Structures are given as C-alpha cells and as structure tokens.
C-alpha cells in the first residue's frame, strides 16, 4: 500500500493484480511511501484503523482488480514457485481448486485468497482492471497529474494463456461461488 500525502492518494495493493508494478511506479514519485511495513497487502480498513495516518479525509483511494478465475490460476502458479509452499501446492490445478472448496486452513490464511472487495471496502475507490492495466494506470495517474511509466515486475515469464482452458465446469463453479461478491461488484464473468 502506498500513500502520497502531497497528492492525497492511496494505492491499495490487492494481491495478484500487478500491484508490485504499480507500487514501484508510484514509489518513483516524490512523496510516495509504503504505508504498511511487514505486509504489502493491507486493506483500506486496515489503513483507516491504523494510527499512522491521522486523517485521510479527501484522499483518493485506488486499486486494481482482476478476473477471479484468472487471479486464482495466477495464485496457483505463483505458490508453485515458492519453496515455502511448494510441498503444499498440488501440481494439478483442479486439486488446488478443491483445496479452496474444502477451505484448507493454510490456504485460507493467505491474503491472496481473500475477496478483492475486502481490500477496498469502506472507501470510495477508483478501480482499474488488470485486463486493461496500462490504459487504466495512465488514466488514474493522470487524474493525479502524474506521468509515470509502469514497469513489468513479478509477471509470469510464460506467454499469456487463456485461464478458461484450466477449468472444468465444476471448478469454474467453485471459483464463481467463492468469489461471488467480487463478480457482482466488479462485473466479471467466466467468459
């Protein structure tokens, strides 16, 4: 999460939505700083409850969201590469979806599994989409009179794939059920 007091802006970093790239672009601008040490994935309510920032009245909050089916596939790929999780993350994506359906405790504790809506609840928040990241980032930062380049960080080295090919009908329904609030709030569908 980034706060810039001179521009009165707050960037909420929702996991698996290109937030590291956005955060690094914002940190290149004077006055931007990381608002939360220890984890980069505070919610807006976490920030508002903290005593570090006495008043954020009038500040503009913004975040990026991502199609929940694509985001969950990205999470599987990401966790598969991390030594801390490698032994827990099944190779088969369908089995990973089952872990979510069964509410596997270690998985449910991850910030990355939470609803995207949880991160922006309690604020009026400008929302950009991962699917139109470059354009939305340019539009949002222009509204703050910032001209920033968006670096590509933490992106998969693999070619962009169609997430739909990884889902059976049952698995797609599981994600749809688990992330129903995100689907309604942000207008995403499986197709």
From TrEMBL:
InterPro entries: P-loop_NTPase (IPR027417), Sulfotransferase (IPR005331). GO terms for cellular component: membrane. GO terms for molecular function: sulfotransferase activity. Pfam families: Sulfotransfer_2. It comes from the Bacteria. This is Sulfotransferase family protein. It comes from Rhizobium fredii (Sinorhizobium fredii).
């Amino acid at each position: 999460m980034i706060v810039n007091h001179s521009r009165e802006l707050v960037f909420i970093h929702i996991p698996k939505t290109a937030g590291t790239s956005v955060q690094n672009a914002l940190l290149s601008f004077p006055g931007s700083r990381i608002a939360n040490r220890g984890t980069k994935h505070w919610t807006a309510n976490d920030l508002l409850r903290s005593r570090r920032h006495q008043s954020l009245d009038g500040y503009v909050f913004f975040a990026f969201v991502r199609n929940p089916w694509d985001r969950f596939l990205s999470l599987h790929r990401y966790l598969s590469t991390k030594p801390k999780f490698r032994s827990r993350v099944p190779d088969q994506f369908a089995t990973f979806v089952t872990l979510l359906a069964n509410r596997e405790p270690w998985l449910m504790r991850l910030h990355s599994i939470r609803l995207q809506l949880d991160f922006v609840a309690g604020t009026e928040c400008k929302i950009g989409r991962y699917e139109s990241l470059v354009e939305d980032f340019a539009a949002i930062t222009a509204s703050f009179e910032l001209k920033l380049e968006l670096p590509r960080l933490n992106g998969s080295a693999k070619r962009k794939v169609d997430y739909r090919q990884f889902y059976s009908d049952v698995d797609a329904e599981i994600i749809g059920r688990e992330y129903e609030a995100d689907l309604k709030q942000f207008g995403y569908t499986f197709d």
